[in-house]
Amino acid sequence: MSFRSEKFLRYKGTQVPEQLRMLKDMSESELEKFLLKILNDGVHGFCFSLYEEGQQPGDLITEEQIRRRINILKPHTDWIRSFSCTEGNEMIPRIAKEAGMKTLVGAWLGREVDKNKEEIDGLVQLASEGLVDIAAVGNEVLYRNDLNESELLDCIRDVRSRLDEEIPVGYVDAYYEFVQRPAISDACDIILCNCYPYWEGTPIEYSFDHMRHMYQLAIDAGKGKPVAITETGWPSQGEGLGGADPSRINAMKYFIQTHLWALANDIQTFYFSSFDEDWKVSTEGDVGAFWGVWDSKGKLKFA
Question: What is the CATH number of domain 3-289?
Answer without folding.
Answer: 3.20.20.80
